[in-house]
Design brief:
signal
Length: 274
């Protein structure tokens, strides 16, 4: 199953989130067909779930500039996740932190590379309900310039070791990847991990992101273009949604429809009742 990517350009003065690899329409159709065939019925009663996070700090050396982010920044990032996912009834708890110095993994981890495979096989913990986060540098090779990437719930059974999220270490709160240093790179990537597509998936054509209450959007939004409307008749673009590509400061919400989809995705593929 293809990983969902969330990347920025190499520019330090005006970086942009740009989609590296998103599922094609055919791949999305296959995922949705599988979801409908396997969908686990869920209750309409609002419940809550507490999900474990295993954080793997992968750095090139022991310095902060080399990727060795402190516990305080990890704690701040978990706090950001909890605020963002409160409306979904999801709480996140840091269950453990590992620290590994590997310049090769730090520099070269990216989708389908030998470095990411070795990193995940060595470090991943927990089961389908555990979010493994790997913070790296994305400095060279096919991963150069990435902000992050994630797997979808439907891929867990066929590729359990690959499951998780990989992010740029400097995108956490207090990092240097402005305007993407308030922690919403992980909010966005965790959104894929719980089953959400980008708000602009499929452009203006149905079914889009398979969520009814996110207005259709022809393409990703950057910065914070208030009033942008790329699919006339469907409402203004959901630029404040965590699953768009706007600046961290512009991202403020998930919708009830996204919460309902997540509830079904987690029950179906991760065995999580929500």
């Amino acid at each position: 199953m293809p990983a969902a990517l969330f990347i920025h350009s190499g520019s330090l003065t005006s970086p942009l989130r740009v989609c590296g690899t998103t599922p094609s329409d055919a791949e999305v159709a296959a995922m949705e067909s599988d979801f409908l065939a396997k969908k686990v019925p869920v209750s309409d009663v609002s419940t809550k779930a507490v999900l474990n996070i295993y954080w793997h700090v992968v750095s090139k050396d022991s310095t902060l500039a080399g990727g060795n982010i402190p516990d305080s920044q990890i704690a701040a990032q978990v706090s950001v996740l909890n605020s963002a996912y409160a409306s979904m009834g999801i709480s996140w708890v840091l269950a453990g932190t590992t620290r590994t110095i590997s310049a090769d993994w730090y520099n070269n981890a990216a989708p389908s590379t030998s470095q990411q495979t070795a990193m995940k096989r060595s470090l991943r913990q927990g089961n389908a309900a555990a979010l493994n986060v790997y913070s790296v540098g994305f400095t060279s090779g096919s991963g150069a310039g990435l902000l992050g990437y994630a797997t979808f719930p439907s891929s867990y059974n066929s590729a359990a070791t690959d499951d998780g999220v990989v992010i740029l270490f400097s995108s956490v709160p207090g990092g240097t990847a402005a305007p993407y240093n308030l922690g919403h790179t992980l909010t966005h990537e965790a959104g894929h991990w719980v089953g959400l597509f980008h708000t602009f998936q499929g452009g203006c054509a149905a079914p889009g992101d398979s969520v009814d209450d996110t207005p259709p959007e022809a393409s990703a939004a950057f910065g914070c273009p208030v009033g942008r409307d790329t699919c006339p008749g469907g409402g203004v673009d959901p630029i404040h949604n965590y699953m768009d590509y706007t600046d961290d400061s512009c991202m403020t919400e998930f919708t009830p429809g996204q919460a309902a989809r997540v509830k079904s995705q987690l029950a179906t593929y991760r065995g999580i009742a929500l």
